[in-house]
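hey can u check if this looks right to u? its 554 residues, i copy pasted from the old doc so theres a chance i mangled smth
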Amino acid sequence: MDSKFTITLNGKEVEALPGQTVLDVARSHGVPIPALCHHKALIPRGSCRLCVVEDSGRVRASCTSPAEPGMNIVTESPRLRAAREMVLQLIFTGRNHYCMYCEVSGNCELQDLGYDFGMDHFTFPTYEKRFPVDNSHEFILLDHNRCVLCGRCIRACADQAGHYVLTEKSRGYRTLVVADLDVPLGSSSCVSCGSCVQVCPTGAFIEKRSAYQGKKEQIKTVQMACDRCPVGCTIDVHGNPETNSVVKIHGDWDAPPTFGLLCRTGRYLSLFDGRPRLTKATIRQDSEVADIPLDKALNLFMSRIDQGRAYVDGSLYNEELARLKELFPGRLFSLNPVTPPLPSTARIGDLGDADLFVLFRLDLDREYGALGSLVKKRVRSGAARLVLVDAAPEVFEKLPAERLSSEAFLARLDRVEGAGAAVALYRDLDDKEKEALQKMESLRRLWLPGETNTLGLARHGIGHAPVTGDTVFLFGENFQGIDVGNPGFLACFTPHENGVTEKAALVVPTLKGFEKQGTLFNLEGEITTRSAVVTPPAPLADIAKLPPPIPEKR
């Protein structure tokens, strides 16, 4: 049965679908309607009143008006034009929108509306009151002088990301967006997901890292998967080719698996890596360390490749793993375990339908933050219960949760068995927990691997083994806590200085992150793609293109 119906839009009959608003229908048919508080990823609020239309002569907000059969909508008329111009004048007058010094000038929705309406003066007095600027946050600046009180940031923080950090205080022109019980943003419960910045239509919320690093016409945007954890969120990487830099990272509201949700690590820490970067190959002889050309370092590596064992971490792309398997047949191992305590039976999409979550020793705000948002939204809405097993007191402290020890949880499994759509999330499980979860047919499981490409290691047949041997080769980015022993020859291929590079005989700098392209497996076992956005700071080794070993002389 066809559920479509028709409405009249500016004198023409057009099709609409159930659930669409008047604004949705108009934009789907290429009819523009101005709006400022509206955002496609957020629940409509109807507060700016710029999107007003006439419905059979009655003025109504198009973003909150459901489309209904037989409607007669007019989107442009002298009456609507006058109303919108008045609203726009009041918005500009409410705060200090001095575009010349604003970071988002040229990429601001309010400024665009000013041009669209031909504003060349302010009707009412402006620049009369100074509003505060909150610079307390590590990554985000909140300038109340640029705020238009559209509420996008509050809705993104609550309805979209599930954090409920932002709210409003006071009334009228004194209204301010505040964090928690009116504390500085940097001292609040903000987890730095950055959703507020991404939806802000003006320069009220700006990212410090990207401020004044390039205008819209200078930026090249590339879509790819995040490589900071195995979730594999789809991201839009905004790079500036003129400065050879990544300016900012945004989430894609239309792309799985997390539909625009990001975390502190994926949005910010990948741009704020403070580890010293390696740009030159070095060789250590006795206690002396000397620089050597990259080609000589690779020649030395290739001359010794048949003599040792190689170890990799989960930061490497599939193409790099495939090449290393060719170079070290039967001698390539993972530095960390790659086998799940129990295989997954759930997918990320199942989190949106669950009525019970059981988390084993996980802090989803600090790790796998986008998944944390999916869980928090569901629990806060009252649609799901939350059980935290062996959780620290600060984990999800603002959520209603049942906090149990592992022993107490195992003693109350009957409560979990009664749930209709329960999902357990875990990284590690002990033997008793594994046995219990295996027996619970109604409980779906989602394993969260410890490294980005853990599933890639498993798919390539690269198993875990302790580091042994007299000649050892290490490849990757994360060697913290790894015992490499005391081999006679240790070679380390990595982008950063670390504890291993301080004692390695050979150190070879490699490409990282936004400098290389390739593929990864996310935690659902699907292949995600990475692209090169910036040029490396010096000639560096590309692990995926390492040359073949040098034949032995006879």
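Residues 281-338+454-545 form a domain with the Rossmann fold fold (CATH 3.40.50.740).
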